Amino acid sequence: MIRLLLAEDQRMMMGALALLLGLEDDMEVVAQVPAGDEIVAAALETRPDVALLDIELPGRSGLDAAADLRDQLPSCKVLIVTTFGRPGYLRRAMEAGASGFLVKDGPVEDLAAAIRRVLAGERVIDPGLAAAALSAGPNPLTQRERDVLTAAVDGATVADIAAKLHLSQATVRNYLSAAIGKTGTRNRIEAVRAARRNGWL
C-alpha cells in the first residue's frame, strides 16, 4: 500500500480527497493535517510514502514544510497540489525538493497516477505551469527584499516594517525601492501584487 499524508486547510476538500484516494486499491491515507506547522510531526509519526501538500496553509507554507521533509524524512516524496499555479511557486517547490507540482483543477485519476509516478522516482509537473515557469525566469528578489515586501503586505508603514524586521527605516526604503524596480511597478503595493502573482513571496 502507498501511504499518504494530506495537508489541506479546507477540511471539506481534504475529506473529499482522502475519500477519493482511499478508493484506490493501492493507497491508504495515514494522516490528514489542516496546518503547515503540523506536517513534519505528522509525517515523522506516520511515515508516509508520499505527502500531498497545499502551499498556502496556516502556520507554515507547504513549500517550507517540503524542505523540512526532504531533510528530516528523505524517504517521503512530496507532491505539491495547489490552487495557485504560479511560476515562482513551482521553482521554489523544486528547490525545496518536491517531486511533483499539480494544480487542483485536474481529475482525481490524474492525481492518483501522479502519486504512483512520483513514488517510482519520476518528476511530475503540470505542463502549462512548467512552460510558464521557464518563460518567467528566476525570482529577481533577494531574501531581504522578499522579507520587506512580505512585511508590507497589510499596508504597514516603513516604521512598522523597520521595527518588525529590526532594520533602519532608510534600509527598508532601499529594499522597497529595489523591489519596486525589479518588479517593474510604481509603488510597494503594486510590487507586492506582482511578487505574489509570480509566486515570489
UniProtKB/TrEMBL annotation:
Keywords: DNA-binding, Phosphoprotein. Pfam families: GerE, Response_reg. Residues 3-119 form the Response regulatory domain. Residues 134-199 form the HTH luxR-type domain. Transmembrane segments: none annotated. It comes from the Bacteria. The modification 4-aspartylphosphate is found at D54. PANTHER family: TRANSCRIPTIONAL REGULATORY PROTEIN DESR, TWO-COMPONENT RESPONSE REGULATOR. This is Response regulator transcription factor. It comes from Streptomyces lunalinharesii.
